[in-house]
Amino acid sequence: MDGQAPRAGSREQGRMLGVLRDEGALSRVALGERLELPRARLAAELGRLIDDGLVEVGGPAASRGGRRSTLVHLADDLRVIGIDVGATSITAAVTDGRCEVLASASEECDVRLGPVEVLRRARELAARTAARAPGRLIGAGIGLPGPVSFRDGMPVAPPIMPGWDRYPVRDELASALGCPVTVDNDVNVMALGERHAGVARSLDDLIFVKVGTGIGCGIVLGGRVYRGVAGTAGDIGHVRLDDFGPPCACGEVGCLEAYFGGAALARDGLTLARTGRSPVLAETLAATGSLTARDVGTAAASGDFAAASLVREGGRRLGQVVASLVSFLNPGMVVIGGGVSRLGHALLAEVRSAVYRRSLPLATGNLPIVLSELGDDAGVIGAAWSATERAFMSPA
Amino acid sequence: MDGQAPRAGSREQGRMLGVLRDEGALSRVALGERLELPRARLAAELGRLIDDGLVEVGGPAASRGGRRSTLVHLADDLRVIGIDVGATSITAAVTDGRCEVLASASEECDVRLGPVEVLRRARELAARTAARAPGRLIGAGIGLPGPVSFRDGMPVAPPIMPGWDRYPVRDELASALGCPVTVDNDVNVMALGERHAGVARSLDDLIFVKVGTGIGCGIVLGGRVYRGVAGTAGDIGHVRLDDFGPPCACGEVGCLEAYFGGAALARDGLTLARTGRSPVLAETLAATGSLTARDVGTAAASGDFAAASLVREGGRRLGQVVASLVSFLNPGMVVIGGGVSRLGHALLAEVRSAVYRRSLPLATGNLPIVLSELGDDAGVIGAAWSATERAFMSPA
Fold first, then answer.
1. Among A143, A317, A329, B33, which residue is least crowded by beta carbons within 10 Å?
2. ipTM value of the model?
């Protein structure tokens, strides 16, 4: 590598790289059909990509029968970094050009430490991970737990990220890593991950609902992330359910997040433990001195009645909000992910029941409401995918 | 006219016609700049449009100074029909190629009479209106008060339109009128009307909320109507606000429409009149024997306390739903229209207060929440616009 990340040289080359990323090895004939390019043009553009080392001839996939046709595929040594910064952890992965994870690692990290410290750790984690699968870096993507200006590559007024407001995340990472970088909201990249490689594969209209420390929603319409005019689309955590509800970390009251975010579940679990209404949680509290949302989920799964009721009640409220979303947007799929989604089928049952009861039958008729398939990998895969979009689609 | 409506012959010609529709007369130079077409290509495509009589040379608009440049504009005699079928009325308009209304007319008509009768009346009304501004018909658009399959040109399972389910509205009208026809949901065409010629002019992301007999919402994202996978996007009338709320015409309970649609306002107004809590409504009831939503609005505007409270309460509930929409979609503008919007600023104040209180500050920071500017014309203008899109953008 000569210090400059390899990139597509034209729009057609970018489209070719995108098709090879999404579909894997293809014959020259099939690639030409996908792109609707005349043979001579195809040969010229493809030749350039091969010369630049972005595409290789002879692929892992078998010919689909019939006459033999040379396969082409993305170069094996292309590498993309995907970073998912959560409220309390960082995950970094290195993928190949098709966004398949080759190596990944996670560590605890409080986003409130601020951008300098958190990005330093993220870079180190990414470097250690990348060293396990060496190759040529073509791009990196990062997801952050707050509103992001995608265009400017920086967070904008993020409620739970003190010190991050308008910090130049993209420019700093791009200069440190020596490749183009995309910065997006964590829920948006999760939605992209599930669409590229997960349960929502190839769907054009979907909603990804993340229930973790915070609650948010990634909206994919017509195959693209819909961000809204100020980049805040998908903010469902702070929809007010009750003017006299519990206080929320955002400073308001009665937000969905104040009922069903990670902190709310831990808080309500603590009440159940202290009042003795949940024997399982009381035991956990006595043993560890504190309770997390995960403890509530474990208690619910073990059959603890009070903890299970808490999950059902939260799922009902979440379902109420998701039902509105479904009525508004009539999506092709609702995917539920994030830490709290580990509560699994009890949660799903409540959400489904609320949506099917409250939304228009025509909108729910063919609507799958499913759990995330990629789990903790959704964010890093989506961030890597977003990075390839930039590397492939913005000609050098 | 030779029995065949004139249409664009190529994609570039379609784009030219679209620019001349949206911007009016332009110099050849300015048109070439808008389309980023090389001069020779521009001359050839424009020549074809002039030969076909779709575009004329020498226009009403003055040159913007500097050296003289020939103006071109859409032919003066192009005509488009826009039809807006509501629950209880039909409006038909004939417009020029720029979708400016040249003549329009309305009549009472119950959509429950079924498609044969309603479409017969719509055709007659359109023909009488078109006769007042003769010219060459290039297309017609119609909005219907229910879910529509835009692709198939027909209503699909519309709740308040018995007999209309999958009736081939587009094909029947196209054959009767001898021009291409588009069929869409009434709220979608209203949103397009406000975007083309009204308060939302040139905005790419907006929500149009119609409060009339029914309550619905047209969503424009990235400059295009977003319809959802089954065409039901924007259904906010049947978002359930309360599991134990009043019964709705759709068969469910507690829908927004059951609180604040035209029928709900009339029903609640009747209660106020009968119990004597509204002296104004009691008087109207005694005089006319019945009450409508409009009577409630008039009473509220005249200062009747009970009627005004009804409007405020409805506005609060509507605002609750609009706040969710704003949080989800982060639009650039919210436009409120339909019959009940005549309640005006009292209604607007309640909706604004709910949205600004409940949605994320970043999403409401630069968000205008305004009344429809085109009023009853929004639907016919939007339907005509949709018709020109088809006539211009689908080459013959």
1. B33
2. 0.71
Cβ burial of B287 (10 Å; 0-12, 13-18, 19+) is exposed
Q: Do B238 and A363 touch (CB under 8 A)?
A: no
Please answer whether residues B74 and B139 qualify as being in contact, where contact means their C-beta atoms are separated by less than 8 angstroms. no
Q: What does each C-alpha distance from B381 to A195, B141, B232, B376 come to in angstroms?
A: 38, 9, 22, 10
Q: Nearest-5° angle of CA A48, CA A54, CA A60?
A: 115
Rounded Cα distance between B374 and A200, Å, is 40
Instruction: Decide if B80 contacts B380 (C-beta within 8 A).
Output: no
- Is B40 touching A (CB cutoff 8 A)? no
Q: Give the residue among A22, A82, A8, A31 at the shortest CA–CA distance from A387.
A: A82
pLDDT at A60: 46
Nearest CA in chain A to B234: A328
Q: Which of B232, B240, B323 is closest, CB to CB, to A363? A: B232
Measured between CA atoms, how close is A173 to chain B, in angstroms?
A: 26
- Is the separation of the CB atoms in B129 and B71 below 8 Å? no
Q: What percent of chain B has pLDDT over 70?
A: 94
Query: Does residue A297 register a pLDDT over 60?
Result: yes
Q: Considering only the beta carbons, identify the residue of B231, B232, B329 that sits closest to A233.
A: B329
| d(C-alpha B28, C-alpha A309), whole Å | 70
What span, in angstroms and rounded, lies between the C-alpha atoms of A96 and B297?
Answer: 63
**CB nearest to B328's CB, from A240, A328, A332:** A328
For residue B66, name the pLDDT band (cuts at 50, 70, 90): low
State the sign of the Cα–Cα–Cα–Cα dihedral B354, B356, B361, B366: positive
Q: How far apart are alpha carbons B359 and A147 in whole angstroms?
A: 14
Q: With a CB-CB cutoff of 8 Å, which residues 161-220 of chain A face chain B?
A: 205, 217, 219
The nearest alpha carbon in chain B to A243 belongs to B358
pLDDT tops 70 at residue A261: yes
Residue B362: list chain A partners with CB under 8 A.
147, 156-157, 230-232
Q: Per-residue pLDDT tens for B325-341?
A: 898 898 999 999 987 76
Structural domains of chain B in order of their starting residue, each with its CATH number: 11-74 (1.10.10.10), 78-197+377-393 (3.30.420.40), 206-371 (3.30.420.40)
Statement: residue B157 has pLDDT above 60 = yes
In eight-state DSSP terms, residue A65 is S
Q: Under 8 Å CB-to-CB from A67, ≥6 apart: which residues?
A: none
Contact B229 A324 (CB under 8 A): no
HSE toward the beta carbon, residue B260, CA cutoff 13 A: 32
pLDDT tens sequence across B1-41: 344 677 777 888 999 999 999 999 999 888 988 888 888 88
